[in-house]
Design a protein that fits this description.
By secondary structure, the protein is an alpha+beta fold. 34% of the residues lie in helices and 32% in strands. A 3-stranded antiparallel β-sheet has the order 2-1-3, covered by helices on one side.
Length: 82
């Protein structure tokens, strides 16, 4: 079966996000003072062949642990669909 896997990678809350801070500052300069915090991450889509959604999720998690995310400073979330 083929699964569409979405991976969301974001900096851990305790990690400084300079890109997010720059965007936050720029938005404020443009008059969007309502914005309190901006965090910038990565969005990755994968088309995977796997026997089940659970197996696709496991494969994607292993990919994140080994390559897609730096787990020392980043968190990730995996969503599996069809």
């Amino acid at each position: 079966m083929q699964f569409l896997v979405k991976v969301f990678v974001t900096p851990k809350p305790s990690i400084l996000d300079p890109q997010g801070r720059a965007i936050e500052h720029s938005l404020s300069s443009l008059g969007f003072e309502q914005v309190q915090s901006v965090r910038v991450g990565k969005f990755i889509t994968l088309q995977l062949d796997a026997p089940s959604a659970d197996r696709a999720r496991d494969l994607a998690s292993r990919m994140c642990d080994q390559l897609l995310a730096n787990t020392v400073i980043e968190d990730y979330r995996v969503e599996v669909g069809r």
